[in-house]
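Private note to self, pasted from the team thread so I don't lose it. Backbone tokens:
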């Protein structure tokens, strides 16, 4: 048995994603069984999308995209082409809705894209107050409602306001190199409080 086959056998036995697979896959901290289920769900979304490739899904499970940054860039590209804006002067802007399931959405966003699949770590999103609040006891993660991501002109957006927290979003709990973008979230507390608490949005929670 070759070294590669032995390494594969050990990985399967230990319920770990083989190194040869992770080399070509998306960042993930999942064990093998959960990883395979997650991959199947990702493929289902892509297969459904491929049936109408020119239409953005009513709600996109952004956590299921291998490269969510490209999807966010595409939102800016579509807005730039539609409104004759300069692409390099656009940024993504997030509007958090009160809808928590795809069934509550009637149709696609008219000025961006509805996304779902992110969870907040270090704090929680209060759907009634529509702002970032302190986590409840023993609550590690808080699922985010459906978010409308749209493109806006950078010079017309003030992200330094006291009531806006620029929340970093990562693909996994490892954070670091899995950074995707920053979401603008409403807050009643100073944004520095959430920065010190290490609050972030995580796309793939194990």
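Design output:
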């Amino acid at each position: 048995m070759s070294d590669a086959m032995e390494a594969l056998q050990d990985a399967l036995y230990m319920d770990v994603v083989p190194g040869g697979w992770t080399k070509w896959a998306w960042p993930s901290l999942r064990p093998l069984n959960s990883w395979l289920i997650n991959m199947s769900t990702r493929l289902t979304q892509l297969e459904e999308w491929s049936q109408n490739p020119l239409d953005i899904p009513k709600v996109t499970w952004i956590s299921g995209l291998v490269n969510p940054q490209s999807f966010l860039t595409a939102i800016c590209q579509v807005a730039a082409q539609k409104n004759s804006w300069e692409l390099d002067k656009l940024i993504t802007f997030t509007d958090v809705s009160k809808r928590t399931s795809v069934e509550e959405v009637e149709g696609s966003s008219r000025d961006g894209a509805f996304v779902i699949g992110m969870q907040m770590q270090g704090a929680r999103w209060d759907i009634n107050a529509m702002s970032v609040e302190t986590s409840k006891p023993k609550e590690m993660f808080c699922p985010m409602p459906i978010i409308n991501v749209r493109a806006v002109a950078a010079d017309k957006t003030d992200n330094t306001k006291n009531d806006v927290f620029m929340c970093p979003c990562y693909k996994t709990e490892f954070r670091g190199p899995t950074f995707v973008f920053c979401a603008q979230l409403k807050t009643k507390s100073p944004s520095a409080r959430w920065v010190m608490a290490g609050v972030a949005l995580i796309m793939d929670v194990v």
